[in-house]
Specification:
- The complex is a heterodimer.
- In chain A, strand 5 and strand 6 form a beta hairpin.
- Chain A contains six helices and eight strands.
- By secondary structure, chain A is α+β, with helices and mostly antiparallel strands.
- Chain A folds into two domains: 59 residues; 129 residues, Alpha-Beta Plaits (2-Layer Sandwich), CATH 3.30.70.
- Chain B is mainly α.
- Chain B is built from four helices and no strands.
- Helices cover 89% and strands 0% of the residues of chain B.
- Chain B has one domain.
- The chains are: A alpha+beta, B mainly alpha.
C-alpha cells in the first residue's frame, strides 16, 4: 500500500464535507418557502382578478348610466322621441338591466348537512356527500320551473338571471354568470305568486323533490319583491340581425 | 485511517458555519456535485485497497467529475434533456460497486487478521 494517500484523501473528504453541508443547508432552508409562496401568489392572483372584475362591473354600470344621460339629453323636449324612450325602457326591463319591483316569491335552499350526518352515522360506506348538497342542476331546474310559471324577473343570491345567464358547477361553489355563490341560495322571482307556487309544488318538480329529500328549503310568497339589475355585460360577436330584403 | 474522517467532520463543520447561501435553482447541481465527489472518494478508497492509488488521478477525477457533472446537469436542464438523471445513474452505480468491493476487502482483511492472531496464539501456546 502506498503511503501518500492520506493527504489527498483528507482533502477530498474535507471538500465533500463542505459541499454536503452547504447542499443540505440550502435544500433544508428552501424546502418550505416555495409551496407557501406559490399558494400566496395564487391567492393574490385570485384577489387581483376579483378586484379587476369588480372594477369592470362598476365601469359597465357607470357607462350605462352615462348612456342614459345622453339619451335623456337627446329626448329632452322632443315629443316623437317619447315613444322611443318608452320602448327603450320596456326593453331594459325585459333584458334585465334595470332593477324591478313586483309581487312574487322567494325560495331558500341549503345543503342537507343534518341528513348527511344522520346517514353517515347509520351507514358510513354507502353515503355520498354529493347527494346531500345543492347542485347547479337544482338551481337550473328551479329557474326553468319559474320561467314556465311565467316569472318575469329572477335572481339567485342577488345575481340577476337573464336570457344568457349560465349556471354552472364551480368546484365547491356554483357559478352564476361566472360569479361564484355558495349556500344558502336565495332565489327571488317576480310573477304570479300562486301560479309559481303551484308549479314548484308539483309532484315531479325539482323543488318538491328537494322537499321530499328533507333538504332545508323554504318557499315564501311576497307582495313586494325587489330584484337587482343585471351587472354584467353583453357580448354579441357572432350573431347579427338579419338584413331585411 | 482516521485522518480523512477527521477531514470530513471538519469539512462538515466549516461548511455549516460559513453556510454559503445557494439559490434553490442551483441546489440541484450542488447535489450532483456532492454525488460526484462521493464517487471520487469511494473510488479513492477502493484504489487504496487495490494498491493502485494515485493522488493525481484522485484529485483530477475529483475536480473534473464534480465540476463537469454539475455543468452537464445545468446544460441538460437548459436543453430540456435530463442529463441530471444520467449523472445520478452513472455515479450511483459506480458508487455502489466500489462500496461492495471496499466491503469485500474489509471483510477479507478482518478475517486475515483474525486468522493470523489465531495462528500466533496457537504458536504461543
Amino acid at each position: 500500500m502506498k503511503k501518500n494517500w492520506k493527504l489527498p484523501m483528507t482533502f477530498v473528504m474535507f471538500m465533500i464535507g463542505v459541499l454536503l453541508a452547504s447542499a443540505l443547508i440550502s435544500l433544508g432552508s428552501d424546502k418550505e418557502p416555495p409551496s407557501k409562496s406559490r399558494s400566496d401568489t395564487l391567492i393574490s392572483m385570485i384577489e387581483a382578478q376579483e378586484k379587476e372584475r369588480q372594477e369592470l362591473t362598476e365601469t359597465i354600470m357607470a357607462k350605462r348610466e352615462e348612456l342614459e344621460q345622453f339619451k335623456l339629453g337627446v329626448t329632452g323636449g322632443e315629443k316623437e322621441m317619447e315613444a322611443l324612450q318608452y320602448e327603450l325602457d320596456r326593453l331594459h326591463t325585459l333584458s334585465g338591466i334595470s332593477e324591478v319591483v313586483g309581487q312574487g316569491i322567494s325560495i331558500t335552499l341549503d345543503d342537507n348537512t343534518k341528513g348527511y350526518e344522520v346517514a353517515k352515522g347509520k351507514n358510513q360506506e354507502q353515503v355520498k356527500p354529493d347527494d346531500y348538497l345543492i347542485h347547479d342542476r337544482h338551481l337550473l331546474y328551479i329557474v326553468y320551473d319559474l320561467r314556465a310559471a311565467g316569472a318575469e324577473a329572477i335572481s339567485i343570491n342577488g345575481e340577476r338571471v337573464i336570457n344568457s345567464t349560465d349556471i354552472r358547477c364551480a368546484g365547491t361553489t356554483i357559478g352564476v354568470d361566472n360569479i361564484t355563490i355558495g349556500p344558502p341560495f336565495v332565489i327571488k322571482a317576480i310573477g304570479d305568486p300562486d301560479k309559481m307556487t303551484n308549479i314548484l309544488e308539483e309532484e315531479t318538480s325539482q323543488y318538491n323533490i328537494l322537499v321530499k329529500a328533507d333538504f332545508p328549503v323554504k318557499l315564501k310568497k311576497h307582495s313586494k319583491v325587489n330584484i337587482e339589475a343585471y351587472k354584467g355585460g353583453y357580448q354579441f360577436s357572432y350573431a347579427q340581425p338579419k338584413e331585411e330584403q | 485511517m482516521w485522518v480523512p474522517i477527521l477531514g470530513l467532520i471538519i469539512g462538515l463543520l466549516i461548511g455549516s458555519v460559513i453556510a454559503i447561501p445557494i439559490p434553490a435553482s442551483l441546489a440541484k447541481y450542488l447535489s450532483i456535485a456532492v454525488l460526484a465527489a462521493l464517487d471520487s472518494a469511494f473510488g479513492g478508497i477502493r484504489a487504496i485497497f487495490d494498491d493502485t492509488f494515485d493522488a493525481t488521478i484522485l484529485l483530477s477525477g475529483f475536480f473534473t467529475n464534480t465540476l463537469i457533472a454539475a455543468l452537464l446537469a445545468y446544460l441538460g436542464d437548459q436543453l430540456g434533456v435530463d442529463i441530471y438523471m444520467a449523472a445520478v445513474f452513472a455515479f450511483g452505480v459506480r458508487l455502489f460497486q466500489n462500496l461492495a468491493i471496499i466491503r469485500r476487502y474489509g471483510i477479507l482483511k478482518w478475517k486475515n487478521r483474525r486468522e493470523n492472531a489465531k495462528i500466533k496464539r496457537d504458536q504461543g501456546e
